[in-house]
Design brief:
Length: about 750
């Protein structure tokens, strides 16, 4: 039996000395009957080659023995020598040269300050011909000389991470033509020299993370045509030059974990035609904008996790990623908005991770655009179980829109951790599991909601800087977003991306109001004025008077009008009235008008005319009456129009169109007693439609207000308003503008002196 075991062991040793055979079985350590150094353990252990092939090899384990020199005697058949966590500072190379089968040497966590003792004194004479893997992590290396490892021609893996490397010779890796994996992460390198990589044509994995390199050079990795994985995490990168990654045609995996990127390096990423895995976790992105990941046609996995400042994902941010199968956007505490069309043309997406954010909903259109979606994670979000979540409860989720878009609701979408996917709003459904809420408990439409975390309460900015305020909202029907500036200026979007157009709100469509176009105003054309119609029609049929419908006229009190008593009117005989022929009325001769004789007109008796009551009639001042001075008609000055109080005009709508949300909007605005009230209210009147832009402001698509160059006049309260037919929601942010730094001002004063 023992003889059979020895035969099997010899066969395994022969197979694994030079060639590793892949194995699907986990094999435990076996005893190795050799003379082992004192304190060390000699066993047959599994070993993985640089190509990830597994085999069983003779291993000498001398870790954690506080050795100051190599142990002896070492078995001649040693394949792997582990000397981790000792006190070694020099290596007896001749002793290692007696190990012809040595393929892996682990010298990590020792006291090496130089690599000269590892190589032959004669660079042309290789010292360790068979060595494939060298581990020197967590030593005290400070620099690498030229051709530092040239005596290791077969080396395929070199681990130099967590040292104190601050400088590398331009040709430090000369002679390592077979190197596949190079770890230089967590050192003190401040720049990257493209000459380091010119002698590494076969390199496939490069790890540079953890070095304080703030800027990557142009074409810095162009020599690495075979590189498949690049890790640039934790380097303090704030941006990426457009050509920084040029030449990496074989790159499949790229990590920017834990950097300072504020935008997606779109242009640099587009130079990676084979990219499959992208890690942007723990950066400082605030928005994922339209087209940021467009046309990365081979990307299969994308990570956007752990971003403290990420608030929104815009329309078509993930456009045209035909091979993307997994998308992770988790643990972003301020992420509260995902555009319904953010994930566009993701035909193969199967896994969507959105847990632990600040999302209130996942729009139905988002789910409809993902035909192969199989699992979604939404737990640990403040979910609103209302109209935006009806797709979860629908038994037959297909809609009429699907017929036009050729998309269908994914079948059997599985919720990850469904027991933790709970409703946060409305109050009657709070703490209910989303899957347990029926469709009858969810409304078909809902008010706009601006997520609380999308805008901070205060933003500080210096003069001359650019400022962008991002406001987003979801509702059904989709809301329209506009801004009100501190001066009362109302800015609306030129690119309204929402399907809803609120035609029923007079203030939202000024062009449709009777007084918004002077050409159509009742007093602009005497021939069409209601007052020029024969008075007999008014006397005989009071019910047909144009003022009989106060709801459609700004004069809401027809009872107090002088025309309500036809018997006392001097125009009771239309045949004799000069106004019976509107076309021939002598407006050009005020002297011949019947109104030119106040003594003979009822207007001369204020007591019998409602015009004597200024509180009830805007025409209490005959001097400004439009009949005597058409140029000074009150309708030419919006400030004096009956609609000068927009609050009353808004409240004149039926009570069903007013909501508590809209009243809260006015509570944020200055009161009429404040100095800015008249300016603000006049800007919201029907005669002042939303401006598309102004010299100081620019409204970008989706509701972003941009101030290109901030001045001290831009400080104040900015209010974002999101509204639909049901009501409105608002959110305000205070902008504080600081002057230039004290040092700069001092320099200016000194320069003037």
């Amino acid at each position: 039996m023992l003889r059979v075991s020895m035969v099997l062991l010899q066969r395994q040793l022969v197979l694994c000395v030079w060639v590793c055979v892949s194995s699907a079985l986990v094999v435990h350590s076996l005893p190795w009957s050799v003379s082992c150094p004192a304190g060390c353990v000699c066993q047959i252990k599994p070993w993985f080659s640089p190509q990830s092939l597994s085999c069983e090899v003779p291993t000498v384990d001398c870790n954690n023995l506080f050795l100051t020199q190599l142990p002896s005697p070492l078995p001649l058949d040693t394949h792997t020598l582990c000397l981790q966590s000792n006190l070694l500072s020099a290596m007896e190379t001749p002793l290692l040269q007696t190990l012809p089968n040595l393929t892996e040497l682990d010298l990590s966590q020792n006291r090496f300050s130089s690599v000269r003792t590892l190589t032959s004194t004669q660079p042309q004479t290789p010292s360790l011909r068979s060595l494939l893997s060298l581990h020197m992590e967590e030593n005290q290396l400070r620099s690498l000389p030229p051709a530092a490892f040239s005596s290791l021609p077969a080396l395929q893996e070199l681990f130099l991470s967590h040292n104190q490397l601050a400088s590398l010779a331009p040709r430090a890796f000369s002679g390592l033509g077979s190197l596949l994996r190079l770890h230089l992460n967590n050192n003190h390198l401040t720049s990257i020299d493209p000459l380091w990589f010119t002698t590494l044509p076969c390199l496939q994995v490069l790890m540079l993370g953890g070095n304080p390199v703030e800027v990557l050079p142009e074409r810095g990795f162009q020599a690495l045509a075979s590189l498949r994985s690049l890790v640039l995490g934790g380097m303090g990168l704030k941006g990426l030059p457009e050509r920084a990654l040029e030449g990496l045609d074989s790159l499949e995996s790229l990590s920017f974990y834990d950097n300072l990127l504020t935008t997606v390096p779109t242009q640099a990423l587009r130079r990676l035609p084979g990219l499959k895995f992208l890690d942007l976790n723990k950066n400082r992105l605030s928005l994922v904008q339209t087209g940021d990941f467009r046309d990365l046609v081979h990307l299969t996995e994308l990570g956007l996790n752990n971003m403290e400042e990420l608030v929104a994902i815009e329309r078509a941010a993930m456009e045209n990623l035909p091979e993307l199968t997994k998308l992770e956007i988790t643990n972003n505490p301020r992420l509260s908005y995902i555009h319904p069309q953010a994930f566009f043309q993701l035909g193969r997406l199967e896994s969507l991770m959105l847990n632990s954010n600040a999302l209130t909903a996942l729009h139905q259109h988002t789910v409809l655009s993902l035909p192969r979606l199989r699992e979604v994670s939404l737990h640990s979000n403040p979910l609103r179980c209302d109209c935006l979540f009806r797709w979860v409860a629908e038994e037959h989720p297909h809609t009429d829109a699907d017929a036009h878009t050729d998309t269908q609701m994914p079948q059997a979408v599985r919720f990850i951790q469904p027991q933790a996917t709970l409703c946060s709003e409305p109050p009657e459904l709070r703490a209910r599991r989303v899957r347990e809420v029926s469709i009858t408990e969810m409304s078909a439409s809902c008010l706009p909601l601006i997520p609380p975390g999308i805008l901070p309460p205060y933003v500080g900015v210096r003069e001359g800087e650019r400022l962008a305020l991002h406001c987003r909202a979801l509702a059904e029907p989709q809301p329209t977003i506009y801004w009100v500036t501190p001066s009362g200026q109302r800015l609306g979007s030129s690119n309204n991306t929402h399907s809803h157009k609120p035609a029923s709100r007079h203030y939202s469509k000024p062009a449709s109001r009777p007084f918004s176009k002077p050409a159509s105003r009742p007093y602009s054309k005497p021939a069409s004025r209601p007052y020029f119609k024969p008075r007999s029609s008014l006397n005989s049929k009071p019910a047909s008077r144009p003022y009989s419908k106060p709801a459609s006229r700004p004069f809401s009190k027809p009872a107090s009008r002088p025309f309500s008593k036809p018997a006392s009117r001097p125009f009771s005989k239309p045949a004799s009235r000069p106004f019976s022929k509107p076309a021939s009325r002598p407006f050009s001769k005020p002297a011949s008008r019947p109104f030119s004789k106040p003594a003979s007109r009822p207007f001369s008796k204020p007591a019998s005319r409602p015009y004597s009551k200024p509180a009830s009639r805007p025409y209490s001042k005959p001097v400004s009456r439009p009949y005597s001075k058409p140029a000074s008609r009150p309708y030419s000055k919006p400030a004096s129009r009956p609609y000068s109080k927009p609050i009353s005009s808004l409240n004149s709508k039926p009570a069903s169109s007013q909501t508590s949300n809209y009243s809260s909007y006015h509570s944020h605005l200055p009161s009429p007693a404040s100095g800015n009230a008249s300016v603000l209210f006049s800007s919201l009147t029907p005669s002042s439609p939303p401006l598309l832009s102004s010299p100081a402001y620019r409204l970008l698509p989706e509701g972003t207000l941009e101030i290109v160059m901030v001045t001290s006049r831009d400080s104040g309260l900015y209010t974002c308003v999101a509204e639909n037919t049901l009501g409105a929601d608002t959110h305000s942010v205070t902008v504080g503008v600081q002057g230039p730094g004290k040092g700069l001002r001092q320099q200016m004063l000194e320069g003037r002196g």
